[in-house]
């Protein structure tokens, strides 16, 4: 009896430990899921996608310009996706660089709805390969012209399967309604992008930049087509900002070198 | 009971009794017991706040508190009020009590005792002003109430200093012409002196001194990633807690970076071969810190294994909930472990033994290192299981560590109980005389 009285308190302590451990044991599987969901890799590259006709060297000047304006020098890796899905690399990511630039270009860089869809699929192949090599799970992206469409298609259709999270997206003169100037006409590209908008991340911050050489567009892309971005991103992503740039270098081809846009990239895409 | 005590035990008990017969020590021990209720309430509030109401808490995450608890922010404000008030008052209280009790040993005049206690509180306040708020027309920010448990050692030190100085003055001026004249004079001089010291202290840029002290204490933690350096961290943590600095050493950016790299390896490669297998997070926290600094959970279990120790058991029952959430301040203050020579050795030895055993098991790849961040308030034995993503071997090692630490504590707790009983008996016989 004395022994029982002596040890019952010890039994209560051990029972309390077990009781308080029950929530933790039940929560254990959720803990791993939560850790994976909230985990962000140290590396968060800025992925740049050029428009049609442009190669993976399209942003060499832009990266050089940005590196002169920032304290941290960002390395540059260029990837070309061949039509047979093979990847050709040039440049390198410096060890310890947490925000390198990665340009993804395509061997078939022709314009047109079918080609843009193909380029989005090739982009996914390159993205998966880069993710496997560099172990990043979040990134920011900038697409010039059709590059913006490729990135939007990727984020709507393929990104969820990669497990990656897009932090920020900047589209520069991206024709969400292709070259259609008539505001009453919806192209198949626009219809597809609107149909897939619910797959866009609620945490994504989007900037849509438009060039204004004339009062109706940047010389190639109609202003209304860029403006259509609001029907895709607005009320879907965390924030959506539209900016119109005019003045020198405001025509479609020169926009990535436009000083206002370089400043916006430095300010909004780089940490 | 005494017949069963080994020679080393008898020696340890004798040293404990010798130590506790010292006037200063006896006063500090009494003062610690006096502020125990405040420390208990403040620690319970701290436990509720950090484990139930903050997003990094164990119950917050496991019981999905946000989905059913209404007015959480308001509740948190109330809990923080209780926590800050109780712990702040405990620091001021210990300074007052130490000074008061020291003066009580040299004079029977209540006014002298109260004046000495008040001077100690005032001195503590003067030393804890936020210099940034020292501007004309702005309310002054007294930080003494925000010291928390870290300030307990400071409270003891100030109490000892003021109490001894006042006591010395009373001895020198033993027969004043009037009972009020001495406390009035000594009080006025004391206030002026503490004010002068406070001003001098502020002029010496105390923020710089505090930063320097913190940097010095954090030094060994910076990049601690080996058995030796972690042992040093464990001993330093234990030593400071034994002296009354009850908050553990803060984590350094290097430690946080290593923890992030470990987690990245697990999540990105699904491999448990971590780049930093021996860090505070992988070893110290899950395997050598159950119940708080010093493997206090082992101490708690040992208390309930020992017989004829009613006081220890009483303190143990009162401290059980905080200790199960790794908040050990009430147990360290109540027993007390603070400044107790007999419990000093196991307090340092138990975590060191657990750390060494766990490091060995990790080196032999018998258990994986803990990579997932642990939630505040997780019951000690479960930290390693959750930290390793559910490895049963980690849970097994944690259980072995608990048994090991209990075995280390057991004889010392028994001897401490005997010493306590003898102190009590001597106090009764002194009272009869």
Automatic annotation (TrEMBL), chain A:
<dbReference type="Pfam" id="PF06028">
    <property type="entry name" value="DUF915"/>
</dbReference>
<dbReference type="GO" id="GO:0016787">
    <property type="term" value="F:hydrolase activity"/>
</dbReference>
<dbReference type="InterPro" id="IPR010315">
    <property type="entry name" value="DUF915_hydro-like"/>
</dbReference>
<keyword id="KW-0378">Hydrolase</keyword>
<protein>
    <submittedName>
        <fullName>Alpha beta hydrolase</fullName>
    </submittedName>
</protein>
<dbReference type="InterPro" id="IPR029058">
    <property type="entry name" value="AB_hydrolase_fold"/>
</dbReference>
